[in-house]
Amino acid sequence: MPDIVTATDLTRRYGEGVAAVDALAGVTVAFPAGALTAIMGPSGSGKSTLMHCLAGLDTPTSGSVTLDGVELAGLSDKALTELRRDRVGFVFQAFNLLPVLTAEENITLPLTLAGRKPDQAWLDQLIETVNLTDRRTHRPAELSGGQQQRVAVARALVHKPAVVFADEPTGNLDSKSSGEILTLLRRSVDDLGQTVIMVTHDAKAAAIADRLLVLADGRVVHDGDAGDADQVFQVMREVVA
Ligand SMILES: Nc1ncnc2c1ncn2[C@@H]1O[C@H](COP(=O)(O)OP(=O)(O)OP(=O)(O)O)[C@@H](O)[C@H]1O
């Protein structure tokens, strides 16, 4: 499988002088198409910084990122915005839905912003997959947390992006809703061929991944098969002292 996202010798330094923090201290990693990768690591290890640099939301201090064959360095803000809009899907811990839009309007927002019409058959399939057929016209305030996150997952997939970035997608959910969201992310890879990169603190969430990447102090300290939740725990115990 070709690599959808690559990072080469990535560093990200915040601040200057004695106050400088090396959030990323030289990360080289590639994410092949059609795989679900979980990124774990202690608080402050650089997970969000890595995800933001990979998604073109933050600019690395040095090193290179490619996304769907495009080198991000040197792209204008406009080109970066378009790249994110057209080729990236995002799922955040805090759902980030627009309160005035219905569930369906939130789902189609990436297409609306791009001035494109949804493929109705695909949209119906997606809404059915996330089990929201009877909630299409509800606004976020009328939906449970789990339902809101299912809207967010459908929104991340609606434009068939090259890659979906999920930042602690189950962080705000009870275990039943978490399970539903993880199943959806897994199905997006298995049934739709999506590529998903997910930051998580939860070993159960990481256990649905094909691959587990662990960061510590801005470096990759483990890269291997995810295994089940017990194996994820074991890896975390071994590599993060
Ligand atoms: N905008 C910023 N300005 C200064 N320092 C920052 C900034 N963003 C992150 N950092 C620092 O960079 C390091 C890595 O932060 P990052 O948010 O990537 O970690 P993380 O692994 O995602 O942590 P968490 O699990 O707590 O979300 C931390 O020491 C953090 O304080």
Automatic annotation (TrEMBL):
InterPro entries: AAA+_ATPase, ABC_transporter-like_ATP-bd, ABC_transporter-like_CS, ABC_transpr_LolD-like, MacB-like_ATP-bd, P-loop_NTPase. One of its GO terms (molecular function) is ATP binding. It comes from the Bacteria. CDD domains: ABC_MJ0796_LolCDE_FtsE. Keywords: ATP-binding, Nucleotide-binding, Transport. SUPFAM superfamilies: P-loop containing nucleoside triphosphate hydrolases (SSF52540). The keyword Lipid biosynthesis does not apply. Residues 5-239 form the ABC transporter domain. PANTHER family: ABC TRANSPORTER RELATED, IMPORT ATP-BINDING PROTEIN. This is ABC transporter ATP-binding protein.
